[in-house]
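Limitations

Structures in this collection are predictions, not experimental determinations, and the ligand pose is part of the prediction. Treat each record accordingly. The example that follows, with 2-oxoglutaric acid as the small molecule, is included so readers can see exactly what is and is not provided: the inputs are given verbatim, and the output is the predicted complex.
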Amino acid sequence: METKVISGTQFTSLPSCYVRPESERPKLSEVADCEDVPVIDLGCGDRGLIVKQIGDACREYGFFQVINHAVPKDIVDKMVAVAHEFFSLSVEEKMKLYSDDPSKTMRLSTSFNVRKETVHNWRDYLRLHCYPLEKYAPEWPSNPSSFKDIVSTYCKEVRALGFWLQEAISESLGLHKDCLKNVLGEQGQHMAINFYPACPEPDLTFGLPAHTDPNALTILLQDLLVSGLQVLKDGKWLAIKPQPDAFVINIGDQIQAFSNGKYRSVWHRAVVNSNKARLSVASFLCPCDAANISAPNELTTGNDRAIYRGFTYAEYYKKFWSRNLDQEHCLELFKN
Ligand SMILES: O=C(O)CCC(=O)C(=O)O
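Predicted complex:
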């Protein structure tokens, strides 16, 4: 494929390199709306209830939405606006940031891993490392001029929310609130600002095919006007309707491993549509490279033998990026 972004170009038909074989297409007519998405009110004042709801959602779904999460609305609105502004720049301007090298800490790219995949995905994305901010923010785009300030503020807010949630997740497993954070070490933070242009033939391709997230926790901001996120529940794909002022929280592979498989790293995908471009902002909290990921003793006693062998996050991450996105669950390769 020509390594070129798709946002900013008009397509009247889907180029063949995006067309999935029949058996791998999204079958959009078979997807139902998820009617019972767990929505957890973090401002309800009852921590015990919140911890229980989070535990139930992580076990049953591997994802949930949070409202009253304390991230100020104006910071979220500005994040969305500046992301739209970035993707409205000319193709020449955006191409200055283009790279298909996954090891780059700041890059505009397209699809998922154009070096490895055979069929591409209808997505452009800006991928940023975000922690420590003093190290990474200087290399972020300087066009739009407000980008660095707005995204830095958003990143700090989302990181605080993520840590709050990790404490609650730890408690929901019957552990001390700091247990999960201690295992993950000084966490990295990455962001993918995803832009899915309107697609001439959305039935034939994906924005992102089914995948689980390799990190610990993902905090996803969905475009309120255009849906596209789908999650796999009991073998069926369900569409997650965007909800005002909510974040979607996905459990990643590292929490599945830490919980000894009690919590599920959810399979999810993004589909596209022919009318409107869609934007999402995914913030990923990632263990530090040297973190030794294994379930604590409390979760591997009695009948609960350790399902996965211990590994470092660096080892896991390397394996994840050496594969195609839609292969078997990467954790399968780390089973005892
Ligand atoms: O756009 C979405 O809703 C999903 C994004 C996602 O799964 C990702 O960035 O890993």
